[in-house]
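Summary for the lay section of the report: proteins are chains of building blocks that fold into shapes. Here we show the chain for Serine/threonine-protein phosphatase PGAM5, mitochondrial and then a coded description of the shape we predicted for it.
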Amino acid sequence: RREPLALTNLKKKNEETGEEELASRLDHCKAKATRHIFLIRHSQYNLDGRADKDRTLTPLGREQAELTGHRLASLGLKFDQIIHSSMTRATETTEIISKHLPGVKKISTDLLREGAPIEPDPPVSHWKPEAVQYYEDGARIEAAFRNFIHRADAKQEEDSYEIFVCHANVIRYIVCRALQFPPEGWLRMSLNNGSITHLVIRPNGRVALRTLGDTGFMPPDKITRT
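The coded shape description reads as follows.
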């Protein structure tokens, strides 16, 4: 779902019509619509929970999700879907946000779960997961990027607006990959809870970052990063 030429079977090129048929088939594979990707970091959650099911949103986290949902609704966009991480804090954030966006379907996926995408450069002393995590989580988060971040399907006629509720590490990695920046730099960015990151993918494959970690819609005393 990237270069139209990669979607065209050149072996089927008609010897009589030649380049004209190739051009026609390329047009058939070209995207026409723009995709708007809204990456939402989950709200503040209980850090003391041992298992994922215990890491539920705090009262402040629930307030943050309400503010994020209200902000998304105020944009007046026709959102197509909400895809969210299957982790408890992301699922709860999604449930609160979705109240402000009635009728928008919700889809849960394990691909967007939090993890260690790639060893950061420069390294940091306060966060050193086991090396095996980079192999396990990294492959999954890269799969999430390839599965969800691409130009519109050629059959898509109108621009789309999609929400992804997930985690800071996942969002930061996706932003680096989408902008073709060295992904090892993902940890140089910081994202607040409930923040909105807006990526735009044009039909020609160009990607633009409209906002990164926006929480300007929250009162200062509601903003956290934990």
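Put simply, here is one thing we learned. The mean pLDDT is 92.
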